[in-house]
Design a protein that fits this description.
Keywords: Membrane, Mitochondrion, Transmembrane, Transmembrane helix. Helix content is 72%, strand content 0%. It is mainly alpha-helical.
């Protein structure tokens, strides 16, 4: 478990030096998988981590499709500086493993037992208002973004552009 904490911390540190959106997406996918494994191990149930993984991977796939359509011919190179930062952070975090073992021990002493914890506590009466507000906010955001975005402009255009292009190039 301390190895997963080390990987998560070094991924977070190396994320600061990234400039290309595809490399940021790869780091985000790796962080999502590590957090899903950690939360599944801590909670005793992998259902919540499975939901988080599906949501984050679908968002990363949307990012990948958008970047592939915008910058399809752009070269992607892994900088040597990033690899050195990743290795240095892994070495530094492994030297601080005593603190991570203390953190792991304090998390295992928590009062959350697998017998007493259920997923129904995520949506109890106290958190129902917050959940409803989050759902309403996401719905409103989706409606606003749909109304703001134009179908005929931007990198993901519809076939209107193709129809006008073929009409202008025909010899008849």
């Amino acid at each position: 478990m301390s190895l997963l904490f080390m990987i998560l911390a070094s991924l977070s540190i190396s994320f600061m030096w990234l400039k290309h959106p595809l490399s940021m997406g790869c780091i985000l996918i790796c962080q999502t998988l590590v957090i899903a494994i950690l939360s599944g191990m801590m909670l005793g149930s992998f259902l919540f981590s499975y939901i988080i993984t599906i949501i984050m991977l679908s968002g990363a796939l949307v990012l990948f499709i958008y970047m592939a359509s915008v910058a399809s011919n752009e070269k992607f190179q892994t900088p040597v500086k990033l690899i050195s930062v990743f290795l240095i952070s892994m070495i530094t975090i492994s030297m601080m493993e005593e603190n991570l073992n203390y953190l792991q021990g304090s998390m295992s002493d928590a009062t959350i037992l697998p017998e007493t914890m259920s997923l129904m506590k995520l949506f109890n009466n106290l958190s129902a208002y917050i959940t409803i507000m989050m759902i309403m906010y996401l719905l409103l955001t989706m409606i606003v973004i749909t109304n703001i975005s134009s179908v005929t402009e931007g990198p993901l255009r519809t076939k209107i552009y193709e129809q006008t292009y073929t009409q202008n190039t025909s010899p008849y």
